[in-house]
Amino acid sequence: MPEGCGALAGEPLAEIALGIADAQDRAAVVAHLESCPACRDELRAMTEVADGLLELVPPAEPPVGFEERVLAVTQPAPRTVRRRWPRLVAAAAMVAVALAGGWALAGRLSSPAPAGNGAVETAALRAGNRTVGQVVLVEHAHPWMSLRLDAGPHDVTVRCQVVGNDGRKVTVGTFWVADGRGYWAATLPADLSVSKAQLLLPGGRVLAAATILPG
Amino acid sequence: MGLPIQDLPDEVLLAGYGQGDPELAVAFVRRFQARVFGVALAIAGNPSVAEDVAQQAFVRAWRHAGAYDPRRASVGGWLGVITRNLALDAARVRPAAGLDPSGLLERLVDPAPAADPEGLLVAAEAAGTLREALRSLPREQATAVVLAGMVGLSASQIAEREGIPLGTAKTRVRTALRRLRAELEVQRAHRA
User: Fold this and answer.
1) What CATH number does residue B159 fall under?
2) Hey, which of A85, A157, B82, B147 has its CA 20 to 30 A from A191?
């Protein structure tokens, strides 16, 4: 089992992973962690185990009406007039997505369903002949899409652009790719029938593209 | 190919919840409410406090959905940490002296049948490996890591509670977590 680089033997990585280290202990290892990928990996693995303890707790049904009370706070009516574009910016920044050259969003997505019926379509994300992730399109009055990638390059800024059947191009987000996999989501223009989605590198070169087949 | 909402990945439901998608928000809350309430109840102990904590956890998840990073944790794990931290904040009003660590440990390693068999099945499947690893630890180590990871007690608080030297408490916590990690890797390797 890897134990980091060994320089932190006896130091409180476990307490940090469990969230109980005091400030002095934490400070003692932070400087080392910043320059040691092996110990960062060790801490990440220990944190994964520590957080996993919570998943051992048996589920328990909350009191009647709990769901409604949560939704009343988090999804206030009228939901149909929410401002979409400011949220889009936040969504675009939300999670890094890793992308590799030659990747394409491919798959057959059905025609949009009537608003509000919760129609969801999925498509495999492919690089050449390989499936490397998944695309989800949610067809509501407020349509949006998500991408999940499982492998890719590091440290790349990409711009996501959708193209409508009418040729109109709309940038739906710019985001930083920090690691080899990730997840990203953004709302789509409600009045755009998307025929293509493409991901652009700085300078405009197409990194990946998706052709959305008509339903 | 189409996919019913109830079959969508956790990350998609969270994104929809954060963006105010009505159907996905409902699906998100229904998928996770028993787990969130379970963690809140296990730590807070009091159902009324647990409900407040669970509701706060969902509000916080909604506000910070954009900060979720799938590279660091599953959605369930992320929600669990949010809930635990809120429950511990609430519990600070009522010191942890009233907690029964043995009872909590028993519930973790040998959970009673839940009112939601399907939810329990899913949770058991996901956590079964770690549950086995926790069960394999010496009792004093398992108690120490549960007191730290679930109840949020520091090594000095564990030492005081268990009547042991501080160094012994630290050793138990560190050894337990390392052994859990090692045991998980062994079990995963066997299943691969």
Assistant:
1) 1.10.10.10
2) A157
Q: What integer pLDDT is reported at residue A135 of this predicted model?
A: 66
A70 reaches B (C-beta below 8 A) = yes
**Average pLDDT of chain B, as a whole number:** 81
Do B1 and B82 belong together in one domain? yes
As a whole number, mean pLDDT of residues B105-121 equals: 58
Task: Indicate the residue of A91, A120, A140 with minimum beta-carbon distance to B2.
Answer: A120
Whether residue A53 and residue B134 make contact (CB cut-off 8 A), yes or no, is yes
Task: Kindly state whether residues B114 and B90 are assigned to the same domain.
Answer: no
Chosen domain end from B94, B114, B142: B94
Looking at A36-40, A48-52, A81-85, B150-154, which range is the least confident one?
A: A81-85
Give residue limits of the domains in chain A.
10-77, 84-213
Size of interface A-B (CB pairs under 8 A): 242
Closest-CA distance of chain B to residue A140, Å:
8
Judged against a pLDDT cut of 50, whether residue A107 lies above it is answered with no
Q: What is the pLDDT of residues A119-148, one digit of tens each?
A: 566 666 666 676 766 666 666 666 777 766
Q: How far is it, in rounded angstroms, from Cα B130 to Cα B159? A: 25
- pLDDT tens-digit readout, A165-213: 888 998 877 766 666 666 666 778 878 777 777 777 788 877 777 776 6
User: Helices B47-63 & A66-74, crossing angle to 10 degrees?
Assistant: 30
> How would you class B187 by CB atoms within 10 Å of its CB: exposed for 0-12, middle for 13-18, buried for 19 or more?
middle
Between CA B81 and CA B78 the distance in angstroms is 5
CB contact residues (below 8 A), chain A span 7-66, against chain B: 12-15, 17-20, 22, 44-46, 48-63, 66
Interface test with A, best of B5, B8, B11 (most A CBs within 10 A): B11
Partner-chain residue, chosen from A14, A110, A136, that has the shortest CB–CB distance to B8: A136
CATH topology of domain A84-213: Immunoglobulin-like (2.60.40)
Residue B1's domain comprises 1-94
Give buried/exposed letters for A92-111 (b at 16+ CB in 10 A, else e).
Answer: bbbbbbbbbeebbbbbebee
